[in-house]
Specification:
The chain is mainly α. Helix content is 55%, strand content 10%. The chain has 9 helices and 3 strands. The protein has helices at residues 3-25, 48-51, 55-69, 74-100, 102-105, 107-114, 119-125, 134-155, 199-207; strands at 28-35, 41-47, 126-131. Strands 2-1-3 form a 3-stranded antiparallel beta sheet. It is flat. The termini are far apart.
């Protein structure tokens, strides 16, 4: 694979994994059956925004990182690759914690529905939980993010550098046809320039007995 194509594939992989994590965040992760004080039971649908609220910020960071990779130099690419690995680990951890303890992941919704707060009280209020496939999708996206970050680190030396569009511009004097440099513009002495006429100045001249039209 050519370096340019490799760069494109890795950036698209980061964008795709971030988009997949964002999609998972919007879906239902847990169906929680909750015992209400005076109304029997109720099944709450817990989406990723409740179960893993940090996931959206992590996914958006992945989008920003992919954009930065398009113009980054070699050293910065290594740093961004390491950050992508860290993002992947963070997404995986957020999803794993929701799967490991779905009752705690549902805590905010349970408290809103029952008024019960506290870890032990919420555990008693949640009668049963069913975990959907979406947190596992988020974990899959996290693995892709981490693997892509490692690949960026290992292959960053092969990537083409940033285009001239993003390089600094330095202006230099252009030599004349005979090889001499053009002379700098002459400095104009402000004292020799005629003062523009104005009505206030004319009245001042007249009050001093001077003819303003003589200027």
């Amino acid at each position: 694979m050519s370096p340019r194509r490799l760069k494109l594939v890795l950036i698209l992989a980061i964008l795709g994994a971030s988009a997949l994590a964002m999609l998972a965040w919007t879906q239902v992760w847990v169906h929680a059956e909750v015992g209400l004080p005076d109304a029997g039971t109720q099944v709450l649908q817990i989406d990723g925004a409740i179960a893993a609220p940090a996931l959206t910020a992590l996914a958006l960071s992945g989008f920003a990182l992919a954009a930065a990779l398009t113009i980054a130099g070699r050293l910065i690419r290594v740093v961004l690759g390491a950050l992508e690995v860290l993002l992947g680990f963070s997404v995986f951890l957020a999803a794993y914690l929701a799967v490991e303890d779905p009752s705690q992941a549902s805590a905010a919704a349970v408290t809103a529905a029952t008024g019960v707060a506290g870890h032990e009280s919420i555990q008693l209020s949640v009668l049963g939980t069913v975990v959907t496939a979406w947190p596992f999708v988020a974990m899959g996206a996290a693995v892709i993010m981490a693997a892509t970050g490692v690949t960026v680190i290992l292959t960053s030396a092969r990537w083409p550098g940033p285009t001239r569009k993003y390089q600094g511009v330095r202006f230099e004097p252009v030599a004349a046809p005979d090889g001499s440099l053009p002379a700098s513009p002459a400095t104009v002495d402000a004292s020799t320039e005629p003062t523009p006429a104005d009505s206030v100045g004319d009245w001042d001249d007249l009050s001093r007995g001077e003819d303003p039209t003589a200027r």
